[in-house]
Automatic annotation (TrEMBL):
Residues 22-345 form the Kinesin motor domain. It is found in: Cytoplasm, Cytoskeleton. Belongs to the TRAFAC class myosin-kinesin ATPase superfamily. Kinesin family. Keywords: ATP-binding, Coiled coil, Cytoplasm, Cytoskeleton, Microtubule, Motor protein, Nucleotide-binding. This is Kinesin-like protein. GO terms for biological process: microtubule-based movement. The keyword Coiled coil applies. ATP binds at G99, Q100, T101, G102, T103, G104, K105, T106. It comes from Mus musculus (Mouse). It comes from the Eukaryota. May play a role in microtubule-dependent retrograde axonal transport. May function as the motor for the transport of multivesicular body (MVB)-like organelles in dendrites. The keyword Ribosomal protein does not apply. One of its GO terms (cellular component) is microtubule.
């Protein structure tokens, strides 16, 4: 295998991910309950559209790919397969889910055991492709960001707040002190670790109601070729990011008098932390899009951790999750506006790596500011 900047063969005609250019935006709709809404109409497929009618105004959004509302987990994964496979050839891939709470982000990313989502399917595919020859050295890390605190979901000791530091440029620009990177010899171990990480996220959920939708979760898998047939040292990375709900503060029920709600103060703090981090994500996307020399990755823990995943040469895919319910329409439009602008960010052609990437981002035009959660539909 030679190195260089050539795109890997996709071999997937009609599939979306050619591994070059912009951040790809895919849109999945929460399955409809009851009567489908007449306020949202969907044209699925490549370059599909979502048209909304809100307060007498029509908005039309075109995305790279729109899934039909009844799309299966398999159908969603099929679109991501080429990108996932490219990790084995030394590419860095980031798949992240964005949208309002309850729209199916975790369902798409994790899925129930009987109908697995992107993460288990991706890992299974990678291990199947790697075979049993031990040609790759695989490591896994899993963190959660809750109220701007970064926590190792795979730590063996008591939960500790991790410190994110600026690292040497050659290592993706950041270092997370104390984060464990586990060696993963096989798929079975990987599944065990993922469910451990998931349960560590979920343990908090019973204590802090709906905690998981108030936190961001990042899974990072690194695949380093250790022996032929792959070129030694070629390192691919897969980042899978399940973002916290993007709904605006007042929707989260925290605009109501905090005193009357015993959890109000906590919820307000959570919502503010999420808003800040998603706003920072919007700021990073805007800077990338406008090719500004300074990209404000340091504005939040989320953007710091995503820095290696959002730099030049990475293949990034945003899976936007939306609801078609009439009462969610405002949020749906905000999410679509965010996604449409993300779709204009160009990270440049996918580049293969020998080591984790450093990040001087390259990007595109237009200076309309991107907003995370401060949206007016
Ligand atoms: P989010 O992570 O965006 O807050 P969830 O993934 O937790 O949302 O989904 C909310 C609920 O909707 C869950 O009960 C989930 O099982 C269900 N759900 C979401 N998407 C689908 C889907 N495509 N098919 C079936 N159930 C779904
Ligand atoms: Mg969730």
């Amino acid at each position: 295998l030679s190195e260089g900047n050539q795109a890997p063969p996709t071999g997937c005609s009609g599939r979306l991910l050619e591994l070059k250019g912009n951040i790809r935006v895919l849109c999945r709709l929460r399955p409809a309950e009851g009567q489908p809404s007449s306020l949202v109409s969907v044209e699925p497929g490549q370059g599909g559209t979502i048209t909304t009618c809100y307060r007498g105004r029509q908005h039309r959004f075109r995305l790279d790919w729109v899934f039909p509302q009844d799309a299966s987990q398999e159908e969603v994964f099929r679109q991501l397969e080429p990108a996932v496979l490219s990790c084995l050839q030394g590419y860095s891939v980031c798949i992240f889910t964005y949208g309002q709470t309850g729209t199916g982000k975790t369902y798409s990313m994790e899925g129930p055991p009987e109908d697995p989502g992107i993460a288990p399917r991706a890992l299974q595919l990678l291990f199947r492709e790697m075979g049993t020859g031990g040609h790759h050295h695989v490591t896994l890390s899993m963190v959660e960001i809750y109220n701007e605190a970064v926590r190792d979901l795979l730590a063996t000791g008591p939960p500790e707040r991790l410190v994110v530091r600026q690292g040497p440029a050659g290592q993706g620009g950041i270092q997370v002190a104390g984060l464990t990177h586990w060696d993963v010899p096989n798929l079975e171990t990987l599944h065990q670790m993922l469910s451990l990480g998931r349960s560590n996220r979920a343990t908090a959920a019973t204590v802090m109601n709906q905690h998981s939708s108030r936190s961001h979760a990042l899974v990072t898998l690194t695949l380093r070729a250790a022996s032929p047939p792959r070129a030694q040292g070629i390192t691919g990375t897969l980042h899978l990011v399940d973002l916290a709900g993007s709904e605006r503060v007042w929707k989260a029920g925290v605009a109501s008098p905090v005193q009357r709600d015993p959890n109000g103060a906590r919820r307000l703090r959570e919502a503010q932390a999420i808003n800040r981090s998603l706003l920072a994500l919007g700021g990073v996307m805007a800077a990338l899009r406008a090719r500004r020399p300074h990209v404000p990755f340091r504005d939040s823990q989320l953007t710091r951790l995503l820095q290696p995943a959002l730099c030049a040469g990475t293949t990034a895919v945003l899976l936007l999750q939306i609801s078609t319910r009439a009462e969610d329409l405002g949020e749906t439009i905000c999410s679509l506006k965010f996604a449409e602008r993300v779709g204009q960010v160009e990270l440049g052609p996918a580049r293969r790596r020998r080591a984790p990437r450093s990040g001087t981002p390259s990007s595109l035009s237009t200076d309309t500011p991107l907003t995370g959660t401060s949206c007016t539909p």
